[in-house]
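S1.2 Input.
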Amino acid sequence: MKTLMLAAAATLLAACQDQAQPTDGSVEGRAPNGRGQKPAFVGQTRAPEMKANVAYEVSDYVTGLSKPWGLAFLPDGGLLITERPGRLRLFKGGKLSEPITGVPAVDARDQGGLLGLALDPKFAENGLVYLAYAEAKGDGTNHAAVARGKLVLGAGPPRLEGVQVIYRQTPSLASTKHYGGRLVFGRDGALFITGGERSITEGRRQAQRMDGTLGKVVRINADGSIPSDNPFVGKPGVKPEIFSIGHRNILGAALNPKTGELWEVEHGARGGDELNIVRKGKDYGWPTITYGIEYAGGPVGEGATQKAGMEQPVYYWDPVIAPGGMAFYDADAAPAWKGSLFVTGLGAKHLARLTLNGDKVVGEERLLTEVGERLRDVVVGPDGALYVTTDNDRGRVLRVAPKAALAN
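S1.3 Output.
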């Protein structure tokens, strides 16, 4: 099994000597795109480098995948993996299954396909698996959708049975971008679905509209019904599944194990990747306020970064890291990582480890720079190791094992 050791970091460092070095103690040496933009509070961006000094080993855990997107460990230690082209796989006992049957048809163009997944909180009893994906409508438009089905294991190949769609994003648009796609169950059993605004101008406007679910975090019951305590239930002209608004494209989300609140990471344009705490009924500003600039240059809208009634990100990156997935570390295998938040970087090709003090980011460390690939998702395994997917046609699941956990 091919192993990448930390010693490779020295080679990487030598190769990067031509890059500008940070002068503020942070890990970021590049100038921000949003020239002249000021953070709303101290520590909101470019936190100082803070190393945990955890020695780790990186190895191939699963190979032979194509654009793996989401991961979920089963109670028996098996690992479910979504591949963006539309396949769901099970890796167990060192073997990767053939594609699991019963998965809905997906629109796999560009950023679409089969995306995030989650296990029902009562999976041990009901075997239900939830899948997020891009779905074509048939008239040239498409949208994000969520379906659930029972995972049947045992006799014969694994399969999904009784698959039903429980959510469809509205309105459908002719776009192949910004679907969001993370699924996270809250402590109360309700399901959070992260969304995107589909990138095009019409979708961007939708992020602030209340009669659709583009650019929103939505919250539904496990069967697709609407929780009675959602913030906009009963309000005329407002979609009752909306939980928060003003998001651009949320690709990573996880519950904070200390507070039970949903945290998410979403893409900005050129600058403005955000880490947010998702709170009931709040407006996170897109596209009215944002850090960074348009891809083509120039301000986003009026160039505002703050506005009364709109939430500020807990943390932001400018230039971007293009966040893909995130996980809070609450295992015992690496005590120095405990309480950290890990965020994968698709564009930056590293794994960011954020040191938290309550709701504040107080330090940042960059790991897995030696891998040199786009990193899509990260989860904490039952053994306390991190499992990270590489986002390419020859995709892998990497096992990032703290040295103390290598014997497990």
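S1.4 Remarks. Confidence is low (pLDDT under 50) at residues 1-23.
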